[in-house]
Amino acid sequence: MSKRHLITSALPYANGPLHIGHIAGAYLPADIYTRYLRSKVGRENVLHVCGSDEHGAAISMKAIKENRTPKAIVDQFHTINKKAFQDFGIDFDIYHRTSSELHHKTAQEFFLNLYDKGVFKKVENEQMYDPEAKQFLADRFIVGTCPNCKSERAYGDQCESCGKTLSPAELINPHSALSGAQPELLKTWHFYLPMGDHSGWIEEFIRDGKLDGAFHHETKNWRNQVVGQCLSWVESGLGDRAMTRDLDWGVPVPIEGAEGKALYVWLDAPIGYISATKQWAIDQENPEAWKKWWQDSDSDLVHFIGKDNIVFHCIIFPIILKEHGGYNLPMNVPANEFLNLEGDKISTSRNHAVWLHEYLEDFPNRKDELRYVLTSIAPESKDSEFTWRDYQARVNNELVAILGNFVNRVVVLTNKYYNGLAPFSDTDWEITDHCLALISKSQENIAQYKFRDGLSEAMNLARFGNKFLADLEPWKLQKTNPDEVRKIMFSALNITAHLAKAIDPYMPEAANRIREMLGIDPIFNGFLDGHEIGTAKLLFAKVEDEDIDHQIQKLASAKSSTSSPESADRPFKPNMTFDEFQKMDLRIGTIKTAEKVKKADKLLQLSVDMGTEVRTIVSGIAQHFSPEDVIGKQVSVLCNLEPRKIRGIESQGMILMSEDNEGNLVFISPEKAFQSGAEIR
RNA sequence: UGCGGGGUGGAGCAGUUGGUAGCUCGUUGGGCUCAUAACCCAAAGGUCACUGGUUCGAGUCCAGUCCCCGCAACCA
Prior knowledge:
By secondary structure, the protein is α+β, with helices and mostly antiparallel strands. It is built from 21 helices and 27 strands.
C-alpha cells in the first residue's frame, strides 16, 4: 500500500486579490508537486488542501476604514480568489474558508484540548482600550511619550528614539492611533503559548530532522532560508506568544468568561488546513476520512508557503500539533523567497503587481505559459524577478521554438509520410531509456522540491527530440531509405509521448494537447500497429511585442493612476474654523545646511534660516533629495509645531511637501526668491 | 544597527562532502529546410564582490571589508 501525501498551500489572506508573487511562491509549486505525486502514487493517495484565511485584525481594520462589515470583505475576496485558482487550474481537492462553522468548531476543539492540558499560560494584564473605537488596542496602535528618553513619538511596544522596549502602560500621555482618543487602561487577560518550553525539541526537529530522538525527516532537502530563520529564532530565545486577542472578528475563545476574545489568527489559520480536510471528508460522505491524512504515520505532511510564513509553520504550528498529540508534523516546509516585478517589489498598495485574474483575462488560454515562466524563475533560493520582456523571451524562445516546434515537426511529418497512421517498428531501447532517464531525473527534482531544475530536465527531452531529428534527417532519407525513416519516426513519436509525461506536472494543458494530437491516454504503454494520430495544432503561440508593450504600459499607468487602492479613497478632511487655521504659524524659510542623519535611511537634518533665527529641522526626504539638492532652497515651514526629538535630534518645525501617487515629493516653494521669515497667510 | 538570504561570463541562474567553472537565453560563424525565420553544430565571452588566512590545491572552509534584497526601525 502506498504512502499518503497531504499537501497544504498557505491560506491566502482574504483582504485582496492574488498576484503572480503568490502563485510563484506557494500555489504553483504545490500544484506541480501534487500533480507529480498523483501520477506516482495514485490520485487517491494525495490530498491538496487550501482555503481563505478570513480572520485577524487587518480585515477588521479594513472593514472599519471602508465602512463595511468584515464578512462583506472576506466574501468578496474568497469568491474572487477561489475563482482565480480554479481558472488557473490549481489542483486543490478543496478550497475551504476559515469563517465556516466547521472551522470555528475545529479550532475551538483544538484550543480546548490544549487548554485542558494546561499548555497555555493565562496572563492577566492591563491593556489600552479605545473608548471611541470601542476596542482594545494592539501595542503598535498606541502612541505616547517615552518614559526613558522623553521622546513623544514612542509606540506602545518600543521607543524608536532610544530603542527601549516598552509596554503601553509605561507610556506617558498615551493616545490611540486609531481615533486619537485617550485610551483607558482596562484589565484583561490572555492565553499565552510559552514557546520557550519547547525550544529543545524544536531545535532538534529543525537542525537534525529528529522527533523524540528518532529520525523524522531528511534535513538536506529543507531549504537554507527555512532552517536558518528557524534556528535564529530558537537561538535568540523563544518567548511567550499570546494566542488570543480582544477582537470581535475571529473564532471566539470557547471558555466561559472569555466573551469578546478571539483566537489569534496565527493559531487559527493553520488549523484551517485541518478543517479543510474535514470538510473534504464530509463532501466525500466519509466524515472520518480526514484522520488518515493527519494522524496515520504513513501520511506525509508538506506545507507550501512564502518566506513570511516560515516561523509559524516550522515552530508555532508544530508545537501546537505536538502538544495536541496524535498529529503528524511536517516532513518539509519548502518556503520560497519573494518574486519582484520589473525591478521593484510587488506592492498591492501601489498597485505594482500582475494580478492573476487580470492575466487570465488578458492572455486567454495561456495558463501554461505563465506556469512555465513562473516555474523557471521561481524564487527557490533567493528573491527573483519577473519582467514582461523575459516572459516573452522564454515563451517564444523556449516554449514555442523548442517544445512546441518539436511536437509540431513530429506530427506534421507523420501525417505527411503516413497519412496519420503511426508507423510501427521495434522499440529502440537506447532512445527509450534516455527518455525514461530524463523523466525520472525531472521527477527526482520535484520530489526534492527543485521545481526549476525539474522543469529544465523536462525541457531537455524536447531538446533531445530536436537533436534526434536533426541528426538523422528523415526528410532526406525518405527518398532513399523509407524503411529506416519508419524506425526514426516511430522513435520520434515515442519521444513525443514521453515528453507529454515529462511536462505533465508543469504544463498539464499542453501535455493534454500533445496526447490529443497523438491520440493516446495519460497512461501510455507504447504505440500499437495501426495507431492513428490527429492533425498538427500549434501548442503555443508567439507572444507579440504589442501584448508585452501593453502590459508594461499597464503597469506604468497603474502606478500613477488613481485606481490604486491607497490613493483612490482620499476624502477631504472635515471643515475647521478660521481660528483653528490662524493657530498655524507658516513662514518662508531658506535651507542653509543639510546632512544625512546617521543610521536612518530617510532622514535629513536641515538648518533653515527663518529670518530672525536659524532652526534645526529633521525631515524624512533623504530618499528623494540629497543634501546638495536642497541647500539654498526656499521652502514653506510650519514653525509652531511642537518640537520633537527624532533620532535624538530636536526638530523645530516641519517642511511642507506634496506627494503624488507615485510617491514623488516636491517642496512648496515661493515662485521667486523671497525674504526668509515672511509669513504665509 | 539587529535577524535571515544573497553577490558566479551581456541577462537569468546551478555548483552537492574543497581537486581542470556549468546550464538556459542572448551574441557571432556555419549547417539544414520536416517545422511557428523555428531546429542542429561550433565559437567568443568569467582574475566566481574585495582583502587576508587554512591547504599540495578554495566559488566551495575560516576571519574581516564592501554592496544588494526581505523583515525590523525610520518617514514631523
